[in-house]
Design brief:
Blueprint lengths: L6 H16 L12 H25 L3 H4 L33 H5 L10 H6 L6 E6 L2 E6 L7 H15 L7 E5 L22 E3 L2 E2 L5 E2 L16 H12 L8 E8 L5 H6 L12 E5 L2 H6 L13 E6 L8 H7 L3 E5 L3 E2 L13 E3 L4 H14 L1 H18 L2 H17 L12 E2 L2 H6 L3 H9 L18 H32 L1
Parallel strand pairs: 3-4, 4-6, 7-8, 7-9, 9-10, 10-12
Antiparallel strand pairs: 1-2, 1-3, 2-13, 5-11
Helix pairs in contact: 1-2, 11-12
Length: about 500
């Protein structure tokens, strides 16, 4: 079918039609009294062909142009495609935790980032990432714990498949170990500035740049599927029982041997001699592996009203899986933070637990929740909703995009591909692994680019961050007051 796409074609349509209508017989002339009818008919056909032209050209836009068109945010897309984000229809603003990108990059805002700074970060890095002309290259230095490095590299590759050729050229160092190593005190007043080093978590006394962890694309060693699939599974698991019908105790299952803080938690377990309203279980991953991980489905663990989160050697990957259940997360006071927890607020998304007296703090939290079931249920739902809405994979990629984009603006050198680097490609990476590693890579492979632009990153505003911190501190103080009053009343009664 011919596509009428220019003015000459449009003119030809109208000229041919008007001549065939008005000049079929040049000898015939309509009576003057019918001239009005003639004009009306002419206008009818004129408007009719205008409508056909507009409709025809809009539905037959060449493919090369369609890819460049920018549709309104409210365009209605199918909800069946996981790449569509219906939330963008009413709000394109990034979630609250995105504001911390500016703060994480603050140490280099005035000086910029030199190549010498980046090279100093190599001391502990597992690999270097170079993004150049829309391609990603990696220079590996040493092996990581399990396959953290492999799946983190895979994450970078998926980001570039999600937003092809939208990221600027950049170069960075990545450390896959648990604890941050760039201590802010070591660089106070130094001219050289701190080395920019990316990792999965940081703390208040460190300058490590926080990045989404490897498990978003799967943790094959313990059979945890990619986050997009886990999030859907937990969402379905939440529907199996109403919050008020669940076990009215606090639940935790994990490895207590990675840190003294977790071993201390085990003292709070329910026994014949004491009742702290907790049920705590030791996870034996070797035994679970041999049994085929039958008792480790995350969606099957949303059966209690309360779930405990406590750090291990550092921040724990378990955090997002615990908080995705719509149980109330009893969040033991942490030292470390990942990229998204800084957008969540005590008493709104979780319940804070003191780390100095865990048992009594847990007991009070459970008692308070069971005496205020509507409010407790609301806290559990709000925490779960935050993750379901603000930590969906589309927004994980948006966080990565904005962090890397803002980071690249600080570079004062031209990125280059090192001689020992290799280009990351899906076929070569999946071809080098087998079993669950291969399956999880295939499951998390982005088959086509995003159909929408990244969310809008809020500007740097220290006032907003300060107000957010004050809100969190006020919530913590309120819980401390309630807890103190509760135990004082218990002592008076006994």
């Amino acid at each position: 079918m011919k596509r009428w796409s220019d003015r000459s074609d449009l003119h030809q349509i109208f000229c041919n039609d008007s001549s065939s209508f008005a000049l079929q017989d040049s000898r015939w002339r309509p009576p003057k009294k019918k001239s009005t009818f003639k004009i009306v008919v002419f206008l009818f056909f004129f408007l009719f062909f205008i409508g056909l032209f507009v409709r025809f050209t809009s539905t037959n836009t060449p493919m090369f142009w369609r890819g460049k068109r920018k549709f309104p945010q409210s365009t209605n897309h199918s909800t069946e495609d996981h790449r569509q984000n219906p939330d963008r229809a009413w709000s394109a603003t990034c979630p609250p935790h995105f504001r911390w990108i500016h703060e994480d990059l603050r140490p280099w805002r005035e000086t910029g980032i030199t190549r010498e700074m980046v090279e100093r970060a190599r001391k502990t890095a597992h690999f270097r990432v170079v993004i150049l002309d829309g391609r990603v290259y990696v220079e590996k230095y040493r092996g990581s714990i399990q396959t953290r490095d492999l799946f983190t590299m895979w994450g970078f590759l998926q980001l570039l498949r999600w937003y092809p050729r939208k990221l600027p050229d950049l170069e960075l160092m990545f450390d896959c170990d648990d604890r941050p190593v760039v201590r802010s005190a070591d660089f106070s007043g130094q001219r050289g500035g701190p080395p920019p080093l990316f990792r999965y978590c940081s703390d208040e006394s460190s300058l490590d740049i926080v990045f989404p962890d490897w498990s978003f694309w799967g943790w094959a060693e313990i059979n945890i599927k990619p986050w997009r699939r886990v999030l859907e599974d937990i969402k379905e698991g939440n529907k199996r029982s109403k919050w008020k019908d669940r076990v009215p105790l606090a639940y935790w299952k994990g490895n207590p041997h990675v840190d003294p803080n977790r071993r201390d938690l085990l003292k709070c377990n329910l026994t014949h001699q004491q009742n702290w309203d907790t049920l705590l279980y030791i996870q034996d991953w070797d035994k679970e592996s041999k049994a085929g991980y039958k008792q480790s489905n995350l969606e099957d663990q949303c059966t209690h009203r309360y779930k405990i989160y406590i750090e291990g050697w550092a921040w724990s990957v378990s955090e997002k899986y615990i908080m995705a259940c719509d149980a109330v997360t009893l969040y033991v006071k942490p030292r470390y933070f990942d990229f998204f927890i800084r957008g969540m607020v005590p008493l709104e998304h979780f319940w804070p637990i003191t780390d100095q007296s865990k048992c009594s703090s847990l007991k009070f939290a459970v008692q308070w929740g069971n005496n205020h079931t509507n409010k407790a249920e609301e806290i559990g739902e709000e925490g779960s909703n935050y993750l379901q809405k603000n930590l969906k994979m589309e927004l994980v990629y948006d966080y990565m995009f904005h962090l890397l984009n803002e980071y690249s603006k600080l570079l004062k050198f031209r990125p280059v591909v090192p001689a020992g680097a290799v280009e990351l490609r899906p076929e070569t990476m999946t071809g080098a692994v087998a079993g669950l590693h291969k399956k999880f890579m295939e499951d998390s492979l982005e088959m086509s680019p995003s159909d929408s632009e990244p969310c809008d990153l809020p500007p740097h505003d220290p006032t907003v961050l300060k107000e957010s911190q004050e809100k969190k501190l006020n919530a913590l103080r309120q819980v401390e007051i309630w807890e103190k009053e509760y135990w004082e009343s218990q002592r008076k009664e006994h």
